[in-house]
Design brief:
alpha/beta, TIM Barrel, GI Alpha 1, domain 2-like, two-stranded antiparallel ribbon, 9% strand
Amino acid sequence: LGADHLGPYAWQGQPAAQAMKNVETLARLCVEAGFRKIHLDTGVACADDPGPPLPLETAALRAARLCRAAEAAVVRPDHPPMYVIGNDVPPPGGGLTPDAQVHVTSPDQLDATLQAYRRAFERAGVRHAWERVMAVVVQPGVEFGDQRVAVYDPEQAVCLSAAHACLPGAMTFEIHAADYQPPEAMDRMVADHFVLLKVGPCLTFAFRRALYGLESIERQLPGIAHRSNLTQVMEDLMTADPQHWQGRYAGDEAAARYLRHHSLRDRIRYYWSRPAARQAVDRLMDNLKQSLPDELIERHLPEHHADIQRLGLNADPGAIVHLYISEALAPYVAACGRSLL
């Protein structure tokens, strides 16, 4: 179980001293709760920091400080946490703009990062934890935005891939924003030593696509007394509390409305746990517990129509949702040489 982006990101509007106190508390709570993979993500600047960007040495010292807090919370010495470090971390949740170019981490940048973090760990008195740094976050040239994906190009990452041989101990590369990569790109990434592939929005995006497809079927079916109105429920939730998408989606109101529901960054994912959303999803599932017409499945769930028929899922909307998520995840699992049961 991993604690991702453990750093001052949530408190970047506060002075660094207060923000780091909050993160130290969070680090201790995560370790006490049983989190074993701790991502020390301290590259974001706080309110009183010069920058961005935050100087590498400052980020490394703050990461070592969080590591010290995490180490102090270890309850079982035989199950200590593992750590992920790195300063070349893309914005959480995808940040590729229409005209932006993705810059691959250089071997020199990687070496400077490792040296800075190693020194910081020694200075903070957690040299023993350095051996448990399992990965360093690097950028091999993959990223995504609202409607665009930067696909892995092995030629651009050949020098970074070769630098994997110089990593200390069992350390490897971790890749963020690896969502939406085609299967052949994922296979090549793993072959090139980019083996820890972090994904998330592509899975919740698949979840949303399945639900909206099912709602389209629900609208067509006769005899349903109380429809879920799922899309409108989600729109009302997002506009009533815009904190998770406002400032991230550009354009006029029509464009923003489209992106609220269909952006690859999938900021709608932060609203599915709201009571109104859960009630609408539950009603949708209840309304569709019947044999759905094949014609409607083919029209509104075309990506997996054949699989739905083959597996006999016409009357199981929950299984259809799981199918969409599993199919989105399967290429990543396959790239790592495993199968998804």
